[in-house]
Amino acid sequence: MNESANTNSNNDGTITTNTKMLTRLMFRLLPVQIILAGIGAVNGIVSSIFASNYVGVDAMSAVGLFLPFQLFLQAVCLMLSGGSVILCGKYMGQNNREKMQNCFAVNVAVSSAISVLFIGIFLVLGLFDLTGVFTGDEVVRSLFNKYLIGQAIGVLPLILGCQFPAFLALENKSKRTFIASIAYIFVNLMLNFLFVKVLRLEAFGLALASSLGMWVFLAVQAECFITGKSLFKISFKRLGWGEGASIIKTGFPGAVQTGYQTARGFIVNHLIQVIVGSVGLSAMATANNLLAIFWAFPNGMLAVSRLMISVSVGEEDRQTLTDTMRVMIRKFFPILIGLAAVLILLAEPMTNIFYHDPSDPVYMMTVWGFRILPVCLPLAIIATHFCCYWQASGRQGILHFIALMDGVVCVAGFSALLIKPFEMNGVYAANVLNGVVIILIIVIYSCICRRHFPHKMDDLMVIPDNFGAPACERMDISIRTIDEVVTIARRVQEFCMERGIDDRRAYLAGLSMEEMAGNIVEHGFTKDKRSHTIDVRVVHKEGDIILRIKDDCVAFDPADRTDIVKDDITKNIGIRMIFKIAKKVQHQSVLGLNVLTVRI
After folding, report:
1. Residue 461 Cα to chain centre, angstroms
2. What is the reported pLDDT for 137?
C-alpha cells in the first residue's frame, strides 16, 4: 500500500478522499436546502399563475411592486440568520454550547421584535393608501394596497421560519424542514384556489394564502425547538443581549447586499415604468417569479456551504475551507451551467404557462427574460461563496464594496445605459454583466492582497497565512479500511517525534489514534451499507498534540461508552486509556459528522 496516497495535500488541486467525504456530505444536505430556498419561489409561481389567470396583468404589476419589499425582508432574514448561523457554527466548532444556545435565543427575540415593526409598516401603507410613491396607476395601486395588507399577516413566520432550517441543519435534522416545506406548498396551493378563484379576493387573497402557508411552515419547525427535541431551545431566560450586536455585526455585510438590491429594485422599477411601461414590469415579475424556483439551486448550495464554512472557521480548519470552494467550482458550477442551458431552451414553454398570445407585447418580453436571466445562475454561485467566506472571516471592507457594486451600481447603471436602446432586454443583460464584473472584482482583490495572480485556492480566497495550523505542523490522513488503521500509530508517532514531542506522549498519541480509528471502522463502518471515510488530523500546537478524528458514521460519543461500562474494567480498555492520558476530550455531532478531538 502506498501510504502517502491517503495523506491529504490539496495544494495541487487534486481531489482527495477527504474532499470526497465532504462532497458526499454537502450533496446529502443539499436537497433540503434547495427545497427551503425554493419555498418563496413556489409562493411566487403560484401567485403568478393565479394572478395572471384569475386577476389579470395589473395584479402581476402589484406583485412586481412588492419585490423590493420582499428583498428587504430577505435582507433582514439574511442578516439575522447569516450572523446567527456563522456564530453558532463557530461556537459548535469550539464545543461551546452555552454561547450557542444564547445566540439562538437572542436571534428569536430580535427577529420577533423586527417582525412586529414591519407588520406595522405594511398595514399603515396599505390601509391608509400611502403607496402612491411606488406607482401612479390607480388600478395597480389599489391592488398593491390589498397585497401589502395580506403580506403583513405573514411577516413574522417568514422572518423566523426562513431561519430555523439552518439551525436544524447544524444538528442534522433537516427532515423536519422537508416536512414543513411540503406542508407549506400544499396549504399555499389550496388557499390560493380558495381565496382567489372561489372567493375572488384578488390581490389580498394572493397574499393571504402565502401568509397563512408560512404560519404552517413555521409551526412544523418550531415544535422541535419548543419541545426540547433540539439543542437549540426557544427560551428567553438569562439572555445575554450583547450577542445581538455580534449577530448584527456578523450578518450585516451579507444583508447589506440584499439591502442594496432593494434600492436597485426601486430604481429599476422606476426606469421600466417610465421607459417601457407597466407591461415591462409584468414581464420582469413573471420571469423573476418562475426563475426564482431555479435560483433555489444556487441558494441551497450556498446554504450548505455556509454551514461548512462557519464550522470550519470555528475549527480553524484550512483544508475544509478550501475543499468547500473546490466542491463549488467542480460540482456546483457545472450543474448550474447545465441548468441555465435547459432554461434557455424552455423559454417559450415557460412563458406559455402565464401568457398565451404571442402578439401581446408582454409575451416576447417574458420570453427574452427566460432566455437571458438564467445566465446569471452560474455566475452568482462563485460570487456568493466568496462573499460568504469573507463574511465569516470578518472582511468588512471588500464585502461592502461588492455589496454596493452588485446591489446598485452595476445593475442599475447598466440598466440605465441599455434600457432605451434595448428596452427590457437591456435590463436583463444588465444582470448578466453585473455577474461578470463581480467575478473580476474577486480576482482583482486577490491580486492586490497577494501581489500576484492567484494560482491556488488559498490565494484566491486570501486566507491569512496564520489561519489554522501551518502545513509543517499538521498531518492529514484519510482512512477507508482496517488495513489503513494498522499503519496509523507509527505515522502519528513519527510525526510527533519529528517535532520534539517526548517518546511517551508520541507513543500514546499514535496508540490513541489507532484505537479510535479502529473502533470506528469496526463499529461504525458496519452499521449500514454506505461507504464511509475517516478524516484524521494531527496538529502540533503550543507544545501539545491535538488529535482530531472525523467520520460520517452513526453518531457515537466515547464518553457515553465509558459511563455505560464504568463498573467493568475489562471492557473498552482503549477508550479508557484515551480519557486517562488526555488533557481534554471533546465530542460533538456537526452536520451529521462525528467529530472527536483529543489533546495530549
Report:
1. 18
2. 83
Length of the chain: 600
Q: Cell 407549506 sits at which residue?
A: 184
Domains of the chain: 10-460 (no CATH), 471-599 (3.30.565.10)
**Residues 347, 287 contacting (CB under 8 angstroms):** no
C-alpha cell at 13: 488541486
Residues facing 537 on adjacent strands: 476, 548
Measured CA to CA, the distance from residue 256 to residue 75 in angstroms comes to 7
Predicted confidence band of residue 75 (pLDDT cuts 50, 70, 90): confident
Contact call for residues 517 and 537 (beta carbons, < 8 A) = no
Q: In whole angstroms, how far apart are CA 28 and each of 40, 165, 312, 483?
A: 22, 15, 18, 28
Helix, strand, or coil here: 305?
helix
Rounded CA separation 228/231 (Å): 7
Residue 347 pLDDT greater than 90, yes or no: yes
Residue-wise pLDDT tens digits, 101-148: 888 889 999 999 999 999 999 999 999 999 988 888 888 899 899 999
- Assessment of whether the complete model's pTM goes beyond 0.85: no
Rounded to whole angstroms, the Cα distance separating 76 from 379 reads 24
Query: What is the identity of the amino acid at 84?
Result: S
* Helix, strand counts (H, E) of the chain: 24, 5
Element (H, E) at 415: helix 410-422
In the beta sheet, which residues pair with residue 7? 477
